[in-house]
Amino acid sequence: MLQASASGVRATLAAVETQRAAAQAAVADAQQAAVTARSAVSAAEVAVAAATVREEGLREDVRASVVRAFVGGTGEDDLGIVGATNLDDVVEATRRSTFFTNDADQRRRLIEEHRASERALRRELASQRRAVVTAERSEATAAAEVARLEQVHHDQVLMAAQVEARLEAALAEAAAIKAIDPSASKGLASEEAALQAEVQAALGNAAGADGSSGGSAAAPSGGGAETPTTTTPKSSGTRSTTSTTAAPSGGGGGGSATTTPDIVTVRGIRVARSVAPLVDEMLGAASAAGLKLSGGGYRDPASQIALRKAHCGSSEYDIWQKPSSQCSPPTARPGRSMHEQGLALDLTCSGSLISSRNSPCFVWLAANAATYGFYNLPSEPWHWSINGK
Description:
By secondary structure, the chain is α+β, with helices and mostly antiparallel strands. It contains seven helices and ten strands. The protein has helices at residues 6-72, 87-177, 182-210, 276-288, 301-311, 316-320, 360-368, and strands at 238-239, 244-245, 258-259, 263-266, 269-272, 293-296, 344-349, 352-353, 375-377, 380-385. Strands 6, 7, 8, 9 and 10 form a five-stranded antiparallel β-sheet that branches. A hairpin with a 2-residue loop joins β9 (375-377) and β10 (380-385). α1 (6-72) packs antiparallel against α2 (87-177) and α1 packs parallel to α3. The chain is rod-shaped, with a radius of gyration of 43 Å.
């Protein structure tokens, strides 16, 4: 994150936002599908139960009709046919027998129709139960998506912290190149501040969407550039005056002593004595190749402390620990830049800041600087340090 270009950070942020939105949509869809499926099953179960009751009632009616047709609905023998004494009685008894027989047949047809209806309802019930199984699987998938959504939000919080650290490094770099190229300094600070604001806005959107708390994420304590162990070469150049600026004790997370390193001047660039011979050799080799490299190196942290007091506040916390983005304008914390250790260079090519990888000076440095122990920070073509930070 610290070495990515601003466009790369924005692309990462957009990808995280897309994943978050997709996870939320999947959760909502799965939950709705489960509710719909269970509702359909409940309705189907009610319909099947009602059909079963109706069919049983029809069966009971048919049984009663058959009994009445062949035994006698009023308790008399064969509906009066056997005991009939004249033709009218026989006809009436026969009519009644036919009526009950037809009634039973009609009820049998109704039973068959209800049987067919019940079979269809049971098929529908089986289908809806399968839908419930599918919905439950979707819910399980949704639960996984919820977990992923939480991870996405965690990643956004982490990204915010990383971008905060990136902003601080960029602000320190902007301060370092201000004397060399004021326009580039201003542009770098503005771009990184805008990028940090975008990340914080996205983090706030995610927090509002998933119900978690948002807010500004502070950079991790101790997030400044590390000072690697190096072999001290032979001294060269002119030694400068040294001084010490101490951070408050017990500051907790960020404060550190900013003792000025042993600084010398090499071909117009102030650097730590430990790297002076290598810088001299590198600039000499570039000159032999027909390239004029110059620029800036060491930057006194006292000036950064003064800026922090002006932009962030005068308390110990304000100066040494408050996140850069909470200052107005955003201002890097002192003691976090490789320039303050004399171990970084901001190089110009024939008097202009190296702002493009197509610059002949950058091409030469990319091929040769590592030989002298210097490495580029990919997001800043002009910035070369002993660890690429």
